[in-house]
Amino acid sequence: MPxxxxxxxxxxxxxxxxxxxxxxxxxxxxDGNNLGVEIGDIVSVRLKGRLLNGITIAKNxxxxxxxxxxxxxxxxxxxxxxxxxxxxxxxxxxxxxxxMEALALFYRVSSLKMxxxxxxxxxxGKHKKLSQxxxxxxxxxxxxxxxxxxxxxxxxxxxxxxxxxxGKWQSELIKFGFNSTLINSMVSKKLLIKIKRKKIxxxxxxxxxxxxxxxxxxxxxxxxxxVYREIKEMQPGEVCLLWGETGSGKTEVYMRLAEDQLLNxxxxxxxxxxxxxxxxxxxxxxxxxxxxxxxxxSNCSSRHRTLVWKKIIEEDEPLIVIGTxxxxxxxxxxxxxxxxxxxxDVSYKQxxxxxxxxxxxxxxxxxxxxxxxxxxxxxxxxxxxxKKVVFEKKIRLLRMKERISxxxxxxxxxxxxxxxxxxxxxxxFCSELLELISQLKKNQEQAIVLIPRRGYNGFLSxxxxxxxxxxxxxxxxxxxxxxxxxxxxxxxxxxxxxxxLINTCPDCESNAFKPFGIGTQRVxxxxxxxxxxxxxxxxxxxxxxxxxxxxxxxxxxxxGNADILVGTQMLAKGIDIPNVTLSVVIAADGLLHRPDISAxxxxxxxxxxxxxxxGRAKKTGKVIFxxxxxxxxxxxxxxxxxxxxxxxxxxKLRKDAKLFPFCKVCLLKVSxxxxxxxxxxxxxxxxYLVSFCKGNKWTIIGPAPSLIAKVGNKFRWQILIHGPExxxxxxxxxxxxxxxxxxxxxxxxxxxxxxx
Length: 756
Prior knowledge:
globular, Arc Repressor Mutant, subunit A, Rossmann fold
């Protein structure tokens, strides 16, 4: 062992769990600096000279040998190093630690891996000095002795009135709908002043009773009242599915329930599937309660997430946390309510890296250990949740079938693009859609357009020989992207590889390249050429980077500063903009014909969700779906808005065939940079599992190359095993399984995978 400091008055040694590459081990250290270390602390220690953060998991008496004047273990003759500092006190409550260890066992990962998944980044592993509880932000205030002018616009006047008493942070103004362009313009006109200041992270939660709700709350409908009463009467540990149609007012019910919890000194955890849904939830809850509401997701900085964690474990005051799936692990004290908004969304499931957990299953386990009310809310419930409601009777069903708006439910029209082509219309949009879009400006209305793929074109193919330009790192075609100045390039949507756009085929040297498929950029280009008077915004992964990327685009659109919002599937998830009267899906066929057993379920959910974005206020909406196969059964259910009929029929078929979710499924994914080694490992693993599966009536399918056989220069193979839904997973202990896997090959175990 390395030499330690001279230590005195040491009576305990601590086992510290450390992350050392691919292994997880515990090492013994002493509290030689009398720091007051306890079990559950995150501490900083040295291992071979490196400073690492780890978790104390055990505390044992230490017997020193005084005559040697050094600190040795009597039995082992080892000299111990000291714990250098405490990074964070008592992050592990007993129930929470036991819960994490149970999850680690279930998902076949080490306890430390589970802790790292739950903790904010930087707490475990290489030591990082945490920043102070402040950062520089922009403070906005009006110019002194400002004289009002008749030349001020309504927005400028409104902003000055807000700032008249005192200034505000620019981030707060943006939340209220004043974009940075307006603020910068008023600064240049010398109406406002920008000041760079330190913003202290508030560590004292304001009292809910002191801040009590001043905003006028909307009156509840009869359905909302009924649902609200029934959930209020639920006991901690009970679970319900709130099946509410789009626009039926689920969010208002959530806020009423959250209010009850806060008044009873209980905290609330609200989960959304996508980061893009967080801004609207944050804004609505903040405005209602006028107290601090915390957000927690991967777009928040490590510092922010660390400070939220510290607040949770150090404060006793009730709070509201709104986040994505990782927030389900937060050790919130006195938690009274957990809400999953849009519970059907597959984003609640993590498929990479391990642990491949489903936040909904994690929450179900959590309420058993730390009882609180659990609500799954959706207009299109997942089949897994439906199974728990109808077949297992484990979840209570509550329905809201009526919209709050008194306007008629939007008409859903399926357009046959084959007929449009026969008529001579070869444009991206059908004739009726072109007419509806042309009326948007006149009627002061807005539209949202969903296209499954981002970028400009799907891929390039040589019309002479059929050659397709693939990514050198992945087994997928490169997509065409266009920059702001018209510059074009090729990009991979899996590994982000970029390449120059070429004009000559590498295979036959022809220049007859033809683009296939369309993306968000291509649709926007078409709209701008066809309707130059309309303002078009793009909403996809390329345009929503950064913490406020989603909020800025949605704020611009909701404030009426754009007429059309073009985006990918995130458009259909919980966006509530009253002035939207037209919802459109382009190239619906690409979603319907995916090689996935759940493709129809996911497509119908997406289509119905998008249909629900139109006509949510006083104006009647319309929904257009363009397809080359209007006879597809999903589109029939869509037009009739019969999602329950689809669930009933599909669940019966799956149950009879013993298909997921009426069986247990596990996908073992093997990947490596060497093709032969990866293939051999997959075959060896499948052979090893045969005896485990046969004895438990499980079936092995594979090994076989994955659907996308190469990603990021790693070849991918998979083994699918499935068996009776009430049986245990027939896998050996984790360490035995990993003994089969060479160092240059990686294994991932995915329980109930998203795609099959």
